[in-house]
Specification:
Length: 606
């Protein structure tokens, strides 16, 4: 059993119930989207055996844990985020034995396995929901069922209980003929929201969580967990019900209003999270709970992740990954760096003394940050900006998350036609916005999709430059479920793992730095020159050690901002540069002139 030594983390952090400091305080977590990671049986879909076959690659990268997007039994309406059996593996991914084998091999390599927990909703094909369709069943109020709007014929146009829209298009209410009522679905109509007000629902979830932890997994990433507590009145009625419809003016450009203001960070969220912690995690150690935190502010993050409140270890926040979208997903604009810096600073400042930060720019829902905020116009700028973005993120205080392919410098898909997309959110949004609401032209929407569709991050992992990038065997006789990116020849693991100048090698150095350097894992964070439009600079301090991180987040040669320059007036000593994405001599000469070349990034001990 070779488990890597965990670097001791000073008590300044906090414990998560275990005797020692939490393992995740100086760890790096790698997210796998199983459908696109490695196809182990040549059917065009990724699977568990494929993942197991690639664990040595992840051990080489140096990561400490894997967040596995859902592999449970599912109709795959939302690629597994619609679960029909929490205690079984979907045959497309393999079996429970394959899951046990993956966990066992990962543990041998010192890598923990964190599963995705999707319990704001189930699939409509889950036995719980099917039972709930019968008003007389014991599960009749396990979901949010409501009659048609007063005075309307159930099932007729406009008879929905209110005007909420589902995240994936259409009304958030679906009429069920058998029950004669509507059920709420914050996401797709095949993802009915569970009623967390019902203690039977909560305890069924906790039982399932304990079943998985007892089976040997190491924690959960909790899907939209901050949506589970809905805002209801004293009579258990949803907003707008007692006055009929939510007023028309509340409806957005597509004719619906969002349920999220009534479900994000709801009134009982802290209570539910504390109950879950008590029922599932109390007495356990060395686990990780990370929640997806829609609607959670940095200040609320501090409360939820403060160990004294016994809720979650950390959360994924959203302010920073929305700074270029002004609240509208499909209208992505040019990044204004000071806005990103302020969002990151707010998150870091809020947890300066207690609580914790997750650090991410990429996941299976976000477009590739390199395409979004980097420069992929040339191979040189792609590699250099990938390293710059990585260094900027990984030098913050918190737990970094690497999304599959990010460590290779993979880019957005480059799709130009609707039939290349598979994500229901993208396809539904195209039809709703272009054909129904007519708020975007087809050309404009295809441009939006090319920039922000979730499929941009879901193209098959690029292992080599063979026909299907080594994801599916070239002679499999089947195509991967989603097209391989056309740049597989330039960007693939086979070409990068052995190359000391590759993006992969740079991620490996950043991960090693977090394992070995206390300042990186637990030093304080202070940003400087926050208003500078091109350079992001910040200090990490622990005891008498001070690390200065400087990143030119632009394609231009720039002058060092004042505060940053003043800390470097003595020039750079090569042995104090902990990591850099440029040749040290070039860096030294640029800094001596008070300048930085495009996408230069470095960490300097001052
Ligand atoms: O994501 C929630 C969520 O809001 C994302 O779907 C994303 O913000 C979306 O693209 C909105 O534009 C979680 C999962 O990460 C996502 O994959 C699921 O589709 C969703 O929940 C429903 O389970």
């Amino acid at each position: 059993m070779t488990t890597r030594q965990r670097h001791h983390v000073p008590d300044a952090i906090h414990t998560n119930g275990s005797a020692s400091n939490p393992w995740w305080a100086n760890a790096v977590v790698y997210q796998i989207y199983p459908r696109s990671f490695q196809d182990g049986n040549a059917d065009g879909y990724g699977d568990l055996k494929g993942i197991t076959s690639r664990l040595d690659y992840l051990a080489e990268l140096g990561i400490d844990a894997i967040w596995l997007s859902p592999v449970y039994r599912s109709p795959q309406d939302d690629n597994g985020y619609d679960i029909s059996d929490y205690r079984d593996i979907d045959p497309m991914f393999g079996t429970l034995d394959d899951m046990d084998a993956l966990v066992s091999r990962a543990h041998e390599l010192g890598i923990k396995i964190v599963m995705d927990l999707v319990v704001n909703h189930t699939s409509d094909e889950h036995a719980w929901f099917q039972a709930s369709r019968d008003k007389t069943s014991p599960k009749s109020d396990w979901y949010w069922w409501r009659p048609a709007r007063e005075g309307c014929v159930p099932g007729s146009e406009g008879a929905e209980p209110n005007r909420w829209g589902g995240t994936f298009g259409g009304s958030a209410w679906e009429y069920d003929e058998e029950r004669g009522e509507y059920y709420l679905h914050t996401f797709s109509r095949k993802q009915p929201d569970l009623n967390w007000e019902n203690p039977e629902v909560r305890h069924a979830v906790y039982d399932m969580m304990n079943w998985w932890l007892d089976r040997g997994i190491d924690g959960f990433r909790m899907d939209v967990i901050t949506l589970i507590s809905k805002t209801i009145d004293a009579n258990g009625r949803l907003p707008g019900e007692s006055q009929g419809l939510i007023p028309d003016e509340a409806a957005g450009e597509e004719g619906y209003s969002s349920p999220w203001p009534f479900s994000m960070d709801g009134p009982r969220l802290d209570e539910f999270l504390q109950e879950m912690r008590a029922e599932v995690f109390e007495g356990r150690t060395d686990y990780l709970t990370v929640g997806e935190g829609q609607g959670i502010s940095p200040v609320r993050n501090e409360h939820i992740t403060d160990p004294a409140n016994k809720e979650l270890d950390m959360l994924f926040l959203f302010d920073h990954v929305g700074v270029d979208q002004d609240g509208a997903k499909w209208n992505i604009g040019q990044l204004q760096l000071p806005e990103l810096k302020r969002a990151m600073v707010d998150q870091q400042t809020a947890v300066a003394s207690k609580g914790w930060a997750s650090l991410y720019f990429n996941n299976h829902d976000q477009p590739r940050a390199l395409s979004r905020w980097g420069d992929t116009s040339t191979e040189e700028s792609r590699v250099k900006s990938a390293k710059a973005i990585a260094l900027m993120l990984h030098m913050h205080r918190g737990t970094p998350y690497v999304y599959q392919g990010e460590e290779l410098g993979m880019t957005n898909a480059g799709f130009t036609a609707l039939d290349q997309y598979r994500d229901l959110e993208s396809i539904n949004a195209f039809h709703q916005r272009v054909e129904d609401a007519k708020v975007q032209s087809a050309e404009s929407m295809l441009d939006s999709l090319s920039k922000v569709s979730r499929d941009n991050s879901r193209t098959p992992m690029q292992w080599d430059d063979s026909r299907y990038a080594g994801f599916t065997p070239a002679d499999a006789g089947v195509e991967p479920w989603l097209a391989v990116n056309g740049n597989k020849a330039e960007i693939n693991a086979e070409g990068e793992v052995a190359d000391p100048e590759s993006v992969f090698a740079f991620y490996r150095k950043l991960i090693a730095l977090r394992h070995t350097d206390d300042v990186v894992s637990s030093g304080s964070f202070t940003a400087i020159d926050v208003d500078d439009a091109k350079v992001y600079a910040f200090l990490r301090v622990l005891g008498d050690r001070r690390l200065l991180t400087v990143v030119n987040m632009s394609s231009e040669r720039v002058s060092l901002p004042v505060e940053t320059y003043l800390r470097l007036t003595d020039g750079l000593e090569a042995d104090k540069v902990l990591i850099a994405n440029v040749d040290i001599d070039d860096l030294t000469s640029s800094v001596a002139k008070g300048e930085l070349s495009a996408w230069s990034a470095f960490v300097y001990e001052i």
